Amino acid sequence: MSATSQYSSSPIFDEASCVRTGQGLHTYGTMAARLVSLLLLLALVNVAHHAGVSAEDVIRQVTDSGHGAGHPGLLPEAQFAAFVRRHGKEYSGPEEYARRLRVFAANVARAAAHQALDPGARHGVTPFSDLTREEFEARLTGLVGAGDVLRSARRMPAAAPATEEEVAALPASFDWRDKGAVTDVKMQGVCGSCWAFSTTGAVEGANFVATGKLLDLSEQQLVDCDHTCDAVAKTECNSGCSGGLMTNAYRYLMSSGGLMEQAAYPYTGAQGPCRFDRGKVAVRVANFTAVPLDEDQMRAALVRGGPLAVGLNAAFMQTYVGGVSCPLICPRAMVNHGVLLVGYGARGFSALRLGYRPYWLIKNSWGAQWGEGGYYKLCRGRNVCGVDSMVSAVAVAP
């Protein structure tokens, strides 16, 4: 993603203001708030120490995430200036800067609300804290027509279910990154192409399982060339930066002949003319299957066949910084983002719940500066945020 950010002038729907209170009237409340912030900071630093995370990074995130937002000296203007410097943001002029400051302040408040609803994770300032919720969803998600597609997915060929014995024998934790099956975290930019990154990740993993070779495959080929529509929900078509579906992309790859490598067809983050060259195909897709809507079956399919393409509700991801996310409210039917499931863990520490939770390990496509090095930990076992509603596996041709 380039240092220059271009934004539309769409209206702001969520704004917040921060007012300095009279110090004399709120001395005791301020002292109590500072004590709570200090205790929280100490707890997080202790967790960071055991997890091998820099305490400096944790301290920076606590102050950025609004735990001290009401204190004199931690005003939104200063936080926003630091955010702009850190992420190389550029705006068209003073009016746009002021508008983005208001959006930033609103997102700091929303991060605090997310923290209350998702206490197992850490929420705060992210590279996308200057985007409204509507802008964020339009530019950084991109899974289309989830409702109709979820219904049509039930008509897809289903993967053979794992037996109870196979499920019982699964390892407690598993990570395809340790096996060499996952490429580096990528960045979709200001383009609703999450579906393309989810697709290439699944194909990269399946090719590794089949051949032992990890290839970096082209999302841009899918963005430029794939206009496939769902077999049942025929109006849900792949449309570059305007969104798409992983299952449509598999169909396109099966009919077109396959997928080129990133080096031969590099990513630009914008839709352009199709430059597909059948003579440079690196991987061919043989078939794909829907994974049963069951998280034990997801674990089995993941271990057996490689990383899985999944859809989920990204409602809590704009403010996610780290930890195991387990929102109290996250509608399962509102699936809007395609990601890659690469592993799972048995014991993910939840700092504010002072306990451990099993989780899914999810590769995102928003760059390594977001989340935990570009990854999202989502608690498993409860179909949180619809994570088991749209899961597919792909097989490559020899």
From TrEMBL:
Keyword Signal among UniProt keywords: yes
Keywords (A to Z) from UniProt: Disulfide bond, Glycoprotein, Hydrolase, Protease, Signal, Thiol protease, Zymogen
Keyword flag Protease: yes
Residues of the Cathepsin propeptide inhibitor domain: 80-136
Superkingdom: Eukaryota
Coiled-coil portions: none
Pfam families: Inhibitor_I29, Peptidase_C1
Domain Peptidase C1A papain C-terminal: 170-395
GO CC term (a single one): extracellular space
Gene3D superfamilies xref list: Cysteine proteinases (3.90.70.10)
Family annotation (InterPro entries): Papain-like_cys_pep_sf, Pept_asp_AS, Pept_cys_AS, Pept_his_AS, Peptidase_C1A, Peptidase_C1A_C, Peptidase_C1A_papain-like, Prot_inhib_I29
GO molecular function: cysteine-type endopeptidase activity
CDD domains on file: Peptidase_C1A
Example of a GO biological process term: proteolysis involved in protein catabolic process
Similarity remark: Belongs to the peptidase C1 family.
Entry protein name: Uncharacterized protein
Source species taxonomy: Eukaryota, Viridiplantae, Streptophyta, Embryophyta, Tracheophyta
